[in-house]
Design goal:
CATH superfamily of the largest domain: HIV Type 1 Reverse Transcriptase, subunit A, domain 1
GO molecular function, one term: zinc ion binding
Largest sheet: 6 strands, mixed
Keywords: Metal-binding, Zinc, Zinc-finger
Helix content: 25-40%
Structural class: alpha+beta
Distance between the termini: 124 Å
CATH class of the largest domain: Alpha Beta
Number of helices: 38
CATH topology of the largest domain: HIV Type 1 Reverse Transcriptase, Chain A, domain 1
CATH architecture of the largest domain: Roll
Oligomer: single chain
Protein name: Reverse transcriptase
Strand content: 15-25%
Shape: globular
Number of domains: 8
């Protein structure tokens, strides 16, 4: 009997304690019977129970209010544990959960029925128990074919229903086994439930048959897989789901679910171990999880991170474990039980993230770190597909040119002549107040200023100037500083030169018969144009070390693009086979020799004028080259695929809502699509009431046809410089969409489309921080169309317009870097209600599934870190403020309002909600930290440390802190300070001053104004007799006072002194 294994320790502090107790009690009672202890005295059975259950159960037992007699009664003790562990059930809720249960993809019928039987126990159905389980089985089973079979049965019982389902499941598995071919490769499998059903063979249309290439039923020669590449093997003519290229079977350990907290799809990923010895490069990493170190397996295919129960219990403090709605299944379809999900902080080097982790009971060595978490911690980086359509660089020729014209690729460059910035008549200067620079950043700033002075970009200013701009500091990824100015006010007063720029048609028309092309780009082109002294004074900016001015044309000046174009045009206008468009120089030739000769002359001229080129953006002797939104080739000009990629890569709709959204965009452009009704009929047939969603070959063909119509003329317009253009951009929850529109016959028609998905970090931004990247993305994607032109930008986010009009330093940290990136464009933002942004809204929600690399996230993150490091707040204090913010109800409402606008913003923050942003859990207003209510008293004490006066405390607090009524709180704190009151400076009493007594009445008088019943009166007193006289005045002006005193003097016949 001593060899009989005791039950495991009873866990009552974490996980599902009701389930823990149920399993423990059952195991304990079996243990007592097997070991012969069931016949022991009651007191001994209680002692055995507590001994086996161990520490947590003993602690709970000590909290029971039991008498000594009850403590010795086994049944009473068990009943108390039962009451403690069993939560009160809500019958309505339990029935809802039961009726909501459906069979999961890959879940066995037996497992599904067992789960239903467990859930039905708390529903109190009584005699209807088996009937309710039967109904839930029929309605919840995934196979439509089996459901139809069950509904045809008369007098269907639970046992018969289970028997039919199990038989169908076994036969399906046997068919798959027979049809499968075994191969020997290892693989990681990923599956997503899209909501579409298996196409059944129609009984009324015998001409359709199930196709082995696409796994659907369709008429002959109508296969949607024809000519399409397989995503699995790469061969054309079939889809991945029917591909016969199999994988080596390995041991599947864990799977993943959709990311919390929105479990939208059922996902699973298999981590495969083929049993062989691992290579030298192990994909594991040790990470700091809360207070302890855990070794994680980096699983890029997993959407979730997993730790074991033992690892979870080591975390101190132990995070709260919540019930997980996720469904975790193995590759074979077996369900893996999750103990719950917890939110933990994970640190790797200097990066720290908060993420969700699933806790499982089985051993997981090592723990799994999901793909999203790997990316956020910087452990893995996506390597995206390289376009094969465009030829690689002509590297040998580039190296030859670098050697021969080495002067073109080194130094800073300085073009001959000087440029004069001309202001409008009557322009008045604007002087901006100095912006605070963190003490820790000042040495680096001084070093950068000295470096640019030495290079000849900047000069110190000691004389008075009418214009003083604000300095904007941008920190690069390598830690260096980039200095910019905020010339918003200056740009309003600059006279534009409006130099005539050639149209795209004029340039492309010259490329007839051209076979070879080269394109060159200048390094910081604006900085190579020198300014005269008067213009240089206009660019003066202030720093903590005095004022400086630019000696070169700075970025952000509104006339800079056309000035640079004019300068380059003057240098190259007499060259044949060379054109300049803004900052692009293109050289072409009909033969290789002609091209090389023209290129050589151009390079020599550029060397003579002192221009410096950016070698990374230069392309030499290319047979095909992207230029001005088109692709110039030896066969002529072709449309750039990037213009329509957002539409051609648009994912297939998976439900009626997505289809309605796309059809809305199609209808918006419908008048230019011939036979629109007939083309969209197969798609609209899925939108009828009570119509089952079935996407087959007919819908796929219609979908492809619609996308082709949207990407060709007459819907897609050819770009025309003579016509007005505007950019429409929008950001959804997960994506960004934009379209370049051109006015054609009084209507706005598309010229180019663009869209991309958001990164994981971008999805967590506030809405305004999503809308601004959409504008930046649109401008940079349509750069060749809008650069140098005044362009209207449509947005459905009003706060974005007010932010764009403010000074850069007043914008939220995340927006400052983005606003700098679009300074080179002449933009006018306009509010347009979302219902009119049909195209941009559709593209933002139907973005390509392939994620694109975004430089915005990394740049914004660097700038936010720089702003944060510039604040005099320690890392520990920042974490305290973040924790207090998370527990502050008012500030959490502000966060919700910033994120999705579903919560009404509290009034104190409503007027400047567009100025707020969230940095590492802390709300920031500009460059000031919003202090939660629980920490305001502590902050007031720190501000008043040293017992400074009221005004000094206010100035000190306003530099880095903010909360509503902060000034009043500071006033009251200082006023109540006993030390300040005791040592405050007492105002001296004014001494009495004697005046000479006059020797006659009305020789000297005193006057003052007073009010009675809101009417002004003049009081006059004679210094000799002290006789008062009052007079009602028409107004309290000096004229009325003089008139009254003159009249008084005449009456008294004396001349008043």
């Amino acid at each position: 009997m001593a060899d009989i294994r005791q039950p495991d320790e009873l866990v009552l502090l974490t996980g599902n304690i009701a389930e823990n107790w149920r399993k423990f009690r059952q195991e304990f009672e079996l243990y007592m019977i097997a070991s012969g202890h069931d016949g022991k005295p009651e007191k001994q059975k209680v002692a055995l129970l507590l001994h086996v259950a161990r520490k947590q159960a003993i602690d709970v037992f000590n909290t029971f209010a039991l008498t000594e007699e009850q403590k010795a009664d086994y049944d009473v003790v068990v009943q108390r544990f039962e009451t403690y562990c069993s939560p009160k059930t809500n019958e309505t809720y339990e029935r809802y959960m039961f009726n909501s249960r459906k069979q999961f993809q890959g879940e066995a019928v037996e497992q599904f029925v067992t789960e239903l039987k467990i859930r039905v126990q708390s529903c109190n159905f009584g005699d209807l128990r088996d009937s309710m389980i039967r109904d839930r089985l029929v309605l919840g089973i995934t196979s439509q074919r089996v459901r139809e079979r069950l509904l045809r049965e008369e007098d269907l019982t639970l046992g018969k229903a289970v028997q039919i389902c199990q038989a169908a499941e076994i036969s399906e598995r046997q068919i798959q086994t027979i049809a499968a071919t075994v191969d020997g490769d290892a693989s990681i499998n990923y599956c997503t439930t899209r909501g579409r059903h298996q196409q059944r063979k129609p009984t009324q249309t015998p001409t359709k048959m199930k196709c082995s290439c696409c796994d659907t039923f369709h008429a002959p020669r109508a296969c949607p897989a024809y000519g399409k590449p397989c995503n699995k093997c790469g061969k054309k003519g079939h889809f991945a789901r029917v591909c016969r290229t199999k994988a080596k079977r390995g041991k599947v350990r864990y799977v993943a679910h959709s990311e919390p907290p929105e479990y939208t799809n059922e996902l699973f990923v298999g981590l495969v171990n083929n049993g062989h010895k691992e290579g030298k490069r192990k994909w594991t990493q040790k990470l700091q999880l809360e207070n302890c170190w855990v070794s994680f397996k980096l699983d890029t295919g997993s959407d979730v991170s997993i730790i074991s129960e033992q690892q979870y219990l080591k975390l101190k403090p132990t995070p709260q474990l919540e019930k997980s709605p996720a469904v975790m299944t193995s590759y074979s379809g077996e369900r893996i039980q999750s103990l719950g999900v917890c939110r933990v902080s994970v640190r790797y080097k200097k990066r720290k993230i908060a993420t969700f982790m699933e806790v499982v009971q089985d051993e997981c060595r090592p723990a799994l770190l999901g793909g999203n978490d790997c990316e956020m911690l910087g452990l893995l980086k996506r390597v995206h597909l390289i376009e094969a359509g465009r030829k690689p660089q002509n590297e040998p020729m580039k190296e030859e040119i670098k050697k021969k014209h080495s002067q073109l690729f080194r130094g800073n460059g300085a073009l001959p002549g000087v440029h004069t910035i001309v202001l409008k008549d009557g322009a008045t200067g604007v002087i901006h107040a100095p912006r605070r620079v963190a003490v820790a950043k000042r040495p680096q700033l001084k070093k950068e200023l000295d470096r640019q002075v030495k290079l000849g970009f900047l000069a110190k200013v000691d004389e008075p100037t009418e214009w003083v701009n604000s300095l904007v500091i941008v920190e690069k990824a390598n830690g260096q500083m980039r200095l910019c100015i905020d010339p918003k006010d200056l740009n309003k007063e600059i006279k534009r030169e409006h130099f005539q720029i050639p149209t795209k048609e004029e340039i492309l028309g010259k490329l007839a018969n051209a076979k070879y092309f080269s394109k060159m780009d200048a390094t910081a082109g604006f900085h190579q144009i020198q300014l005269d002294k008067k213009s240089s004074m206009l660019t003066t900016f202030n720093t903590p070390f005095g004022r400086y001015r630019y000696l070169r044309l700075p970025m952000g000046i509104c006339s800079a693009p056309e000035v640079f174009h004019k300068t380059m045009h003057q240098f190259l206008e007499d060259f044949e086979g060379v054109s300049v468009y803004m900052d692009d120089i293109i050289v072409w030739g009909s033969t290789e020799a002609e091209h090389d000769e023209r290129l050589e002359k151009t390079l020599e001229r550029l060397t003579q004028v002192g221009l410096v080129l950016n070698v990374d953006k230069c392309y030499f002797r290319q047979a095909e080259l992207p230029y001005l939104g088109e692709v110039v080739t030896q066969d002529g000009v072709k449309p750039d695929p990037e213009k329509v990629q957002a539409v051609t890569d648009m994912p297939t709709p998976t439900n009626a809502t997505e289809l309605q959204r796309v059809l809305g965009m199609v209808t918006y452009l419908g008048r230019y699509i011939p036979n629109l009704s007939a083309r969209t009929a197969p798609l609209r047939s899925l939108l009828g009431k009570d119509i089952e969603w079935q996407w087959n070959a007919e819908q796929e063909a219609a979908w492809i046809g619609i996308k082709e119509a949207l990407t060709k003329h007459p819907v897609l317009q050819y770009y025309d410089e003579s016509k007005a253009i505007k950019v429409s951009s929008d950001a959804s929850k997960d994506g960004i969409g934009a379209v370049l529109l051109q006015e054609t016959k009084g209507e706005w028609m598309p010229v180019a489309y663009a869209s991309r998905s958001m990164t994981t970090a971008e999805k967590n931004y506030a809405q305004i921080e999503k809308e601004q990247p959409s504008v930046v993305f649109a401008c940079e994607r349509f750069h060749s169309y809008i650069y140098g032109r005044r362009v209207l930008v449509e947005t459905d986010h009003k706060p974005l317009i007010s932010i764009s009009k403010k000074q850069l330093g007043d914008a939220p940290p995340r927006l400052q870097r983005l606003l700098l990136r679009i300074q080179k464009y002449d933009l006018v933002l306009e509010y347009t209600p979302g219902k009119y942004l049909v195209i941009a809204d559709t593209l933002s929600r139907s973005y390509p599934s392939k994620r694109t690399e975004s430089t915005t996230e990394s740049e914004v993150h660097i700038h936010v870190c720089a702003v944060k490091s510039g604040l005099p707040v320690s890392e520990r204090k920042w974490e305290q403020i973040a924790e207090a913010t998370a527990n502050d109800e008012e500030l959490q409402r502000v966060v919700c309002c910033m994120s999705d606008g579903t919560v009404v913003c509290p009034k104190p923050y409503l007027t400047f909600i567009d100025e707020l942003s969230i940095v590492d859990g802390v709300i920031v207003k500009g460059q000031r930290v919003v202090v939660p209510r629980s920490m305001r008293t502590q902050m007031l004490q720190l501000v008043h440390e040293g017992h400074m006066g009221i005004e000094k405390c206010k100035r000190r607090a306003r530099e880095i802190l903010y909360w509503p009524n902060m000034n009043q709180d500071i006033y009251e704190t200082v006023s109540r300070c006993d030390v300040c009151q005791e040592h405050r400076y007492a105002q001296p009493k004014e001494p009495l001053r004697m005046h000479e007594r006059p020797n006659r009445p009305w020789a000297k008088v005193g006057c003052d104004l007073f009010y009675l019943k809101q009417k002004p009166y003049l009081l006059t007193i004679d210094y000799y007799s002290h006789y008062p006289e009052t007079a009602l005045l028409a107004s309290e002006t000096s004229g009325q006072v003089i008139i009254h005193l003159k009249g008084c003097s005449r009456d008294m016949a004396y001349q008043a002194q």
